[in-house]
Write a structure and sequence with these properties.
The protein is α+β, with helices and mostly antiparallel strands. The chain contains three helices and two strands. A two-stranded antiparallel ribbon has the order 1-2. Helix 1 packs antiparallel against helix 2 and helix 2 packs antiparallel against helix 3.
């Protein structure tokens, strides 16, 4: 049962990574996946293997991992020759040195 759950979670993570468009989205997804796995292990160990503790640990770990992963994305602003704006109004570099 545990190997089937781990395999399905790994497949879901691999499938959802293909839809990430920005580095921030990719880092949030990776952080959520790693945090969810670590939280599930810690929740299972702390609760003595109960399913509720495992699910709670996975949920808390995934949420905090996603937030930390998204916040830890570096912003690259060096070596830009010309700045422009995308269709959302975000400032982007359109030419590098």
């Amino acid at each position: 049962m545990k190997s089937m759950l781990a395999l399905s979670l790994a497949f879901a993570a691999a499938l959802s990574v293909s839809a990430c468009q920005t580095p921030q989205q990719t880092n949030a997804l990776a952080g959520g996946a790693l945090g969810g796995g670590a939280g599930a292990l810690i929740g299972s160990a702390v609760s003595g293997g109960s399913p509720g503790g495992t699910l709670a640990g996975a949920a808390i770990g995934a949420a905090s991992g996603a937030m930390i992963g998204a916040a830890a994305t570096p912003t690259y602003q060096g070596n830009c020759a010309r700045w422009g704006y995308d269709y959302n109004g975000n400032r982007i570099c359109i030419a590098y040195y």
